[in-house]
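tool=predict chain=A
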Amino acid sequence: MRFFDLIQLVLENINRRKGRVLLTAIGVTIGTAAVVILVSLGVGLQQNFTSQLGGIGALTQIMVYPSYGEMGVKFVGGGGGGMMDMAQQTQLITPQTIKDIQAIPGVKNVITRDYLQMGAMLKSGRLESWGNIIGVGTRDLGDLDMKVQDGTLSLEPGTAIIGAPVLNNFYDPKWRPGMPDPVPPDPMKDGMQLVLMKWTNEGQEIRKTIPLRIVGIIPESRAESDYTVYMHIDDVTKFNEWNMGRRVNRTKDGYQMLTVNASDVKIALEITQKIKELGYQANTPQEFIQGINSFFIILQLVFGGVGAVALLVAAIGIANTMAMAILERTKEIGLMKAVGATNRDVLSIFLGEAAGIGFIGGLGGVAIGWGGSFLLNMVLVAYLSSQAAQGGGLPPTAAVYTPIWLPIFGLFFATLVGLLSGLYPALRAATLLPVNALKYE
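tool=predict ok
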């Protein structure tokens, strides 16, 4: 039997039993629609969540910290006595550490970081503010995946780049009720001063004022940069030396932190593991993203499984419909075989009808699922946007998202369910003996 003749015969048989086919296909429609809507919800929640993680840093970045091990016990002294010395075993980040990490394949660059280890205040005219002072061992903050709102990301000794929200924290210490609110300064135009503060052993405060030339402003990103003043690490090291009253020895004092950039996001986790094997603490946003993605994949499988249960129920309905069709058309089957139809031809006809019911139900399910996902997305986006506005978060761009492959998969899966559901009844029909089929009442 030719393929097009088979299709024509299947459509004619389905058309003869419109009511029964429609009722059977409704079960497939419900199951397919459930799969499309629930999986779309899982995909949309995943995209919405990951879009809110823009502030956790570039996925190629790896943060490295000194390793603070367990307390070690060491006996000191000689003779018949002695005493125990409890010391924490610490693996510092030294210049040798930087060389070891740079030797790892796939490492693009290593950037040292240090924090200001004393009190500090920012001043602009009469206005004052506070911010984290961080020294970085790079002359381009683009290496840290920063963006610029105004000015440049080029960082030279004696200059600073500031997060935009820091400017909103400036206040006038002499402000009184009734006075106009202070206007945030323009640091690139008006300049700024950094006031360092340390205390002697007697509790006396010593201040040191340093002119600060702001060369760039970083836009708000809900990340570390929002409340940070970035300076070159050489400047911050000099400030810390003034506070400690001695020079910093990187071999003995180490660095507080490193930022390691991988050449490719695909090897960030591998590099992180190798740094941990060197004995240091290391983490990357890729670890967090990987965990989140694993969770949402499981969630999508659970959602898809719920819809698959409905398809399973529909499959039983298709099997029942096809079994009843065989009983009703037993003489028809015998007549087809009597005029030359083979077992394969009969099998193909009944499998085609079962697959056709699944296909019709799948089409309806895909249409309903796509439309339902669109409506559900509008409702959830409106709700989540109101919640984000109350909590000060970013509004979601989408809560339900239907990837193009999902409707195609849903239609294919529904057709496959119909085909498999009709397999046993079709085999029964194909193996009927023509003589017995013609005598069947």
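Residues 61-71+89-283 form one domain. The chain has two domains: 3-57+291-439, 61-71+89-283.
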